[in-house]
Structure formats: C-alpha cells, structure tokens
Amino acid sequence: MLRTEYKLNMKALKNEMPSQDPKIRAHNFKEVTTGYTAEQAIDEAKRCMNCPTKPCVAHCPVNINIPDFIYHVALGEFDKAYDIISESSSLPAVCGRVCPQESQCEGVCTRGFGAKVGADGKLTKEPVAIGRLERFVADYHNAHECDVTLNIKKNGHKVAVIGSGPSGLTCAGDLAKKGYDVTIFEALHLAGGVLVYGIPEFRLPKSIVQKEVEGLMAIGVKIETNMVIGRVITIDELKKEYGFEAIFIGSGAGLPGFMGIPGENLKGVYSANEFLTRTNLMKGYLEGTNTPIEHAKNVAVVGGGNVAMDAARCALRLGAEHVYIVYRRSLEELPARKEEVHHAMEEGVDFQLLNNPVELIPTDCTDPRDPQYNLVSKMKVEEMKLGEPDEKGRRKPVGTGNFKEIPVDCVIIAIGTSPNPLIKQTTDGLETNPHGCLITKDESGLTTRESVYAGGDAVTGAATVILAMGAGKHAAKAIDEYLSKK
Amino acid sequence: MYKIVRKRVFNPTETELEIEAPLIAKKGKPGQFIILRADATSERIPLTIGGTDPVKGTVSIIFQIVGASTFKLNQLNEGDSLHDFVGPLGRPTEITGDNVCVIGGGLGVAIAYPIAKAFHDAGKHVTSIAGFRNKDLVILSDEFNASSDKFIPCSDDGSYGVKGVVTLPLEEMLKSGVHFDKVICIGPVIMMKFVTLTCKKYNVPECVCSMNPIMIDGTGMCGCCRLTVGGKTKFACVDGPDFNAYEVDFDEAMSRGTMYKAFEKKAYDEAKCNLFKKEAE
C-alpha cells in the first residue's frame, strides 16, 4: 500500500553516496564512502513505493523487512528503523557496507525494474539504495546509542563458538541474549575473522567491528583469542573436559588456493590472504608496526572477486604505480560487488580482462645473494575469449593461443579459498564433502556429530558475510531448541 | 597472561624464555611450534617449542635476535608478559626409527635438542651433532650430551669440538659404515641442504628436515610459508614443519627466506635506535 504520510520521491536515480575523491583516497586507508546525511537518507527513503510484492524481502538472505525499515527512515524515526533491521540482522553496519546488494535486495527492487543503459553509459533508473540506507541507520544508531542494559536471565547452559567471524559473532550474540553462557575461541590474536584480517579499513573501518565485538562482551560473551581449536583443545575435549553442551563451528574458509602455474613460489608472489593479513590485521601500512609489506611498483592481482578488488586497492594505497586486475572472463562475469569494481576503476586499477596467467617469470639475476634473485618480474598471460556457458550458466573462457607479458614486481593470487581442514582432521566423525566443506543436516547447521553445529564459509565454501550471519542465526535457534529440550 | 617465569641469556644474540602457558604446555610435542608477539605492534614470530613442563604449565622457547620484533622480545624480563602466545602449531616430529642421528646447526640446536631427547626417552639409539660458528655461541651442550648415546659438537673455527661444519662428522661416520635408520636435521636451510645431499650419497633410508620459513598466522591461512616438496606446494605450518628432506626444494626455500632481509635490517636498526633514545631521556 502506498504511504500517505509523505510525497513519494520519483527521481529515477539513487541519491549519490558521498565519497572521498578517487585521486585522494587511492593513497589513504580512510573509508572510501562517508555515508548519507539524515536529509539524504530521508529523501532516498521516500523513493521506496512500498510495492505490494516486496521482492527485496524475499531476496534478502535473512529476510529483513526492508520496506518497513525504510518507511521509518522516511519519517525520520531512525531508532525504529534500527529495531526493525535488528529483528533479522545482527551486523547491519557491516552488511550495509559489504553485502552484494545488486544481486540481492536491490537487484529486484521495483524502482530499478526495466533499467537500461543510457547514452551516457549510466543506468536510466536505479533501485532504492537499500544498502546505503541500512548503513545509515546502523551508523546513526551507533553514534546515538544510549547505554541499554539488557536484563538477561542466565540459563546455565554452556556453548562454545569456534571462530569470531560473521557467523560466530552472530551465533554467540543470539545465544547470549537468550541467556546462554557463551565462549568464543579465536585462533588469531584479534576477534573479527575475515572482517579484520580480510576486508580493508577503507571499506569496513575496524572500529565498527570492534564495536560489534565489545557489544557482545557487554552482554556476557567471553572471547578467548590465541586459541587454535583442534590443536590446543579438541572439539571432544571442549565437550567432555570443559562442559560445553553444544558447539558452533564458524571457522570460515581460510585456506588459500593457488593456480599451480610455474613461478608461483617466486618472491613477490602472495596469496591474497597473506597480502591482506599483512596489511589489515598486522597493519603493515602504518608507521611503527613491525610486520613488513612489500611496497611494489607494478602489481598484478589474479581474480575478479571482492578479495581481488580489496587486494588491488590496498596495493594502490601502499604506493603502487600500476595495479592490474587479471581476470580470465569479461566484465559481465566479474563476481565482485558492482560498487567495488566501480571504485577500483575510479581509483585507476587497470582491468586486464579475458587474460589467463600461465607463467610467472623471475628477473634474470643469477646471484642468490642479490635481493632481485628469484623475484617475480613478468606475468605471462594467454588472451581468452568466451565460449559456451558452463553448468553454472557462466560463459567459459577459452584460450586463443595469443600470449603477452605484463611487467610486474608483485603478484597477488585471489582465486578463492577453501575451508581450513584442521578441525575436521582433529575431530572423529565430523564429515566434509569433497571440497572440504563441513556437511550439515539442514538449515539448523547440525553436523554429522551430535550437538556440534556449523555455519558460514566452513559449510558453504567462500561466500558472503550476510549468508554467514544468517547461518549463525539459524544455528543459534537450533542450539536453543536442542538445549531447551535437555 | 603469558608471563615470563625464567629468562636465560646464552650469549648476546640468543636467549631462552620460559613462558606460562598451561594449555600449550599440556599439549605441545617436540617438533611443534608456537607463535608469539612481544607487544601489540610486533610481528607474529613463529618459534619451535624448546621444551614443555606440563606440571609447572610452562613452555620454553629459544630465539635469536635478528629484527625489531625479536629485539623487543629480548628487552622483556622475568615477570613481564608477552602480548600473544598461541600454539601448539604444526605436526609433531614422528619418533620412529631405532637408530637415529639428530643434527642441529646454530639456533637449530635449540630445536634439535627436544627431538633428540624425545628419541632418547623413547629408548632409541641417538647420535647427535651440534654445529656452531664458535665456542662463544655454544648452547645446550650439557643437555644434548645427557640425551645422546654419542654427542659430537663442532664449530666452524675449531674453537669448540670438531673443526668444521656438521656434514664433516656425519660423512665420516657414514663413510666408515655407521648405519642410521633416520637422520633429522634442523638449522639454516643451506646446512639442511648439504646434510640431505650427504645422506643421499650414502643411501640413508630416511632424512627429515624441520623447515622454518617466514609465516604469519601459522594455521594454514596465509600461504606465506609454502614450499615445494616432491613437486607439490606444501604449507610448513600445517603440513610440516617436518618434511621428507629428499623431496624438499631447498634452493627455493632459501630464496623465499630472503624476502624481507632489507626491511628486517632497517626495522632492527630503528628499534635499537629507539631504545637508545629512550635510555637517553
């Protein structure tokens, strides 16, 4: 039903997102986009028609009641809007920033229906900026939050959560609110998982993650960092010796893939995980930290996902003169969020599309004592063309037999990750599929072991923050049902 | 958290710390390692476990001062605490073979010792070779001696034990017909490469090396520690650190190990300089 309290905003395009100038931001780690003002948010919210079909809700992995929260934004009732989002989402400040909205809620928005590319290369109409509004609401809430003391009645049941990424944080939060005694075990020295080691500061400020973590601690969640479960304590010991009645595994997909081409172990060749960890977790870009990071001149990033975009844009900010994205398919198939691709292009990243790396070639230095020895100097690529669609419907790249060489002194491989095998290797009866993903029974996340649940990338393979968050929520619900019956 | 309960300075560049870490002390086995950070800006430093005391709940580590982070680590004293201490990581050394030779070089001696001890405690015949640059850098010789059926110390300049590198006594023994089921070597990559070549020459059935490449997380996430073993890429942190030495590409490992040499030196100099400034104030 149409809203009657205000006049609909019929502008065809979204309110633009205020952001740092590309030339300036390409050299700093501050957040790229600065967020809507209250006026911009209210104006944008009035573009939502509250259409009867609400396709956005069905296409949100956690089914946030989008038209409702937007309605309250339009009325300037930002706290109410926040409460509505909170019914379905635990990490709105994060998801508003990193969700691939164009393939979820915004992709089906009625306001964007039938959009064409105009003569200026831009879309003729755009969906409601749902992601930007979600971010606005969350940021407003975080900035104006008054101390709410939740009155949680403890129920005495102990639950262990392994991993402090999006699924673990969500699962822990939901259970703690229900009164469970929750402990999160994190392998690294800092909580947040991919939100701290992977996604860079300029896309997701770490203060936001820190706030989420502190929020959990405030409601009684214990966080034990430096704990590699499987090595220092096994899953079985958590149950038998430490008295945890249920366990949620949210250990993510941290194992980096390599291409298996010659020269991949040369100096100057990184997995995206290594490059991003040195930059984001270890803060290699800051003066006064001791973790080294190469400040290369010519950087080639292999892959077309968000991780590839993050790595390319970190390399720019570390002072690279030329950064390439080398991807074997075309612009159409790039799996990264549209906004990240757009930002990367604006910042000057050179997209070498339809190119497939076949070899990495070292310098011709022959003196092992010389730092140049065995350092990558060229990437040989084969030019590709698109062939028939594969089983997923994406057109398969086929080699053309034409090769070229790109001069590089740093190569970052961002072709995907798979789940870390450590917990599976050290837990009897925990089964995985051939890709190393933990097998779960259904939406509850129950694994092949009783009272052991799992969710997020450890189950799906590398996916999105919101799917992981959704899995954490489902598992929390299932764990609650399971332990309530005990 | 992670309190230093004992500090033993071997020489100006090598120090042992005994750290309070009861869970790791209970689980850690010879050949496994830990990762530590002295403070919040330090690197994550991987160090092989030098010994554990499950009763006291402590873990010993021995390190060499090579960069800013190890320099800062060495500034800490008994009663101070480490910022982070995580482990045990990696797979333990397999204590198999009845007659083994354990070889350590330089700081590798510190890692070789608990392995020699584990074999000795398991009732195996242990021959140990420990190599140092000179007598001032000798560490753990009494401990080694007590855990070996035969202990052969050596030094490059002859100021301690046999004059020469560790492959010298090894080759002498193998040449004279001494048989080992297994040789285990831990030390600089170049040393492990030549121990391996010597073992190959005399057909020693098994040769194992303990790799110590550059690492960040130590749980299989960054891939920085990768090396080529038998033509395949392996991660030292989760697949190792022990590998079949006959299959390891030592030349590649050596070159990868030099990646941050220049940075390391600069950061080390800056750290020393900062300390002097602080002391001057």
Please describe the biggest sheet of chain A, giving its number of strands, its sense, and whether it closes into a barrel.
Answer: 5 strands, parallel
Radius of gyration of chain B: 18 Å
* SSE class of chain B: alpha/beta
| Major sheet of chain B | 7 strands, mixed
What fraction strand of chain B?
A: 25-35%
The assigned CATH architecture of the largest domain in chain B is 3-Layer(aba) Sandwich
Write down the overall geometry of chain A: globular
Whole-number average pLDDT of chain B?
A: 92
Q: Which residues of chain A sit in consecutive blocks of at least 5 with pLDDT less than 50?
A: none
What is the SS-derived class of chain A?
Answer: alpha/beta
- What's the gyration radius of chain A in Å? 23 Å
What's the domain count of chain B?
2
How confident overall, as mean pLDDT of chain A? Answer: 93
List the secondary-structure elements of chain B in sequence, H or E: EEHEEEHEEHEHEEHEHEEEHEHH
Total number of beta strands of chain B: 15
Q: Helix coverage percent of residues of chain B? A: 25-40%
Work out the helix count of chain A: 17
- Biggest interface between protein chains, with counts per chain? A-B, 41 and 46 residues
* CATH evolutionary superfamily of the largest domain in chain B: Nucleotide-binding domain of ferredoxin-NADP reductase (FNR) module
CATH class assignment of the largest domain in chain B:
Alpha Beta
